[in-house]
Amino acid sequence: MRSEPLAGGERPIAEAAHGQRIGERELIWMMALLMACNAFGIDSILPALDHLATSLGAQGNSRQFVVGVYLLAAGFGTLVPGAFADRYGRRPVLFTALGFYIVLSLACAAATTFSQMIALRALQGFFAAGIIALPPAIIRDRVGGDKMARMMSLIFVIFLLVPAVAPSIGQGVLLLLGDWRWIFVAMAVLGCVMSAWVYVRLPETLHEEDRQEINVSVIARNMRSAVTLRSTIGYTLASALVFGGLFGFINSSQQLIGEAFGAGEKFPLLFAICAGCMAIANWSNSRIVEHVGARRVSHTALFLFILVAGLQLWFANQPDETLWTFVPLMAANMSLLGFIGANFGSIAMQPFKHIAGAASSAQSFLRMTTGALLGAGIGYAYDGTARPLALALLVTATTSLLFVLYSENGSLFGPPEPDEED
Fold first, then answer.
1. Cβ atoms within 10 A of the Cβ of 51, count?
2. What's the rounded Cα separation, in Å, for the pair 322 and 58?
3. Looking at residue 196, what is its pLDDT?
4. Phi, psi (deg, nearest 5) at residue 70
5. Full DSSP string of 149-210
6. Sequential DSSP letters for 331-390
7. Of all residues in the chain, what percent carry a pLDDT higher than 70?
8. 2 against 145, higher pLDDT
9. Could you point out which of 102, 199, 274, 413 has its C-alpha 20 to 30 Å from the C-alpha of 253?
10. Continuous segment of H or E residues that includes residue 420
11. How far apart are CA 122 and CA 88, in angstroms?
12. Helix 230-253 and helix 387-407: axis angle, to 10°?
């Protein structure tokens, strides 16, 4: 659906079912908070992992599986919604994903054994994967070029505010209600709020001429093209690797910061500082990316990430590393991810406007499964020090650079992409 500019200069993105227009700002907030349901499902439980482990009888590093299995299952789950969204539209698939998110959050709150919890978290991640896979497709339905990178950066600013505050919310729930189960109830409430907002305000963004058949060969062809094109596959794999390092930090953060470095109840605040730095970086990226170009910004950030990761590894191998060297360097690298993630994702989606759902699903699958497996391995390698994490960050970032070089045929820092709007 095309529409004319509104008085005052704001261009409407689409028109909702009730005749109301949804503008760019509201669309950005909505897509960000949809994706934030996933982040809240991961990060709000972090301060309660030790309570949950004690309550359900989990031992040692196995508590990390509450996070790791969700991420991995969500990666596999992202293969499913895109094809259906390309056929039936974005709205019905979003409602299905949100419904599963709500029901399975409540089921997790009722779990009585650790094995039940792991099974339910796997189901939750798998069936709620649409809230991860569809927002990029919805944005790609409307815009392209570096404008998409700008919008995705703004989405990540809002999205990252949730992991910044989610551990504090989780800890607050523990202090007020004394039971980790209420954190899962809070997830269900968030899902209900987002379902109501989407129902009232989000229009269908899939164009009639872009509807695809539910045909195995068509779906396979569309997904294969999204993950085999040389100009984009390197960016998909590169983002999977750098975010695998981030997932490794998330998996082990409570043990590393809260226990090994002795932060204790300061852990949510320190985690919030790191995530907040990433949000600020995404906001900064949104201000410069259309002028400088997604490639120039993200390539520069990747080189700096490698440099900071090298410093992290050096400090991690010192016998007297402290919290006050680890946190600033981790915050610096999370800031640099703010200049990498949205830009890499936007570059990878550029050629696929007419199959945006399938492309988003296929690329999200590669990113999430690779990142989750790497993150689980990095987290499980935790040995009471920051060494495994620092080494993993350096190796994954360096390998990411090789993948980017492959996609760019050895030439970095390319010019800006022209904007494209519906």
1. 18
2. 29
3. 94
4. -65, -45
5. HHHHHHHHHHHHHHHHHHHHHHHHHHHHH--THHHHHHHHHHHHHHHHHHHHHPPP---GGG
6. HHHHHHHTTTHHHHHHHHHTT-GGGHHHHHHHHHHHHHHHHHHHHHHHHHT--SSSHHHH
7. 91
8. 145
9. 102
10. strand 420-421
11. 26
12. 170
Q: What DSSP assignment string belongs to 137-159?
A: HHHHHHEEHHHHHHHHHHHHHHH
- What count of Cα atoms within 13 Å lies in the side-chain half-sphere of residue 318? 11
For residue 269, the model assigns a pLDDT of 83
Distance CA 153, CA 34 (A): 15
Q: Is the pTM of this model over 0.70?
A: no
Q: How many CB atoms lie within 10 A of CB 320?
A: 6
Mean residue pLDDT across the chain: 82
Task: Provide the sign of the torsion angle of the four alpha carbons 77, 83, 86, 91, taken in this order.
Answer: negative
Give the residue from 118, 140, 109, 124 showing the smallest Cα distance to 58.
118
User: Measured between alpha carbons, how far is residue 198 from residues 16, 39, 53, 95 in Å?
Assistant: 10, 18, 35, 8
Q: What tokens does 152 get?
A: 């995705």
Q: Is 235 helix (H, G, I), strand (E, B) or coil?
A: helix
Closest by Cα among 317, 304, 326, 303 to 391: 317
Q: Is the pLDDT of residue 207 over 90?
A: no
Tens digits of per-residue pLDDT, 351-388? Answer: 777 777 778 778 878 887 888 788 888 888 888 888 99
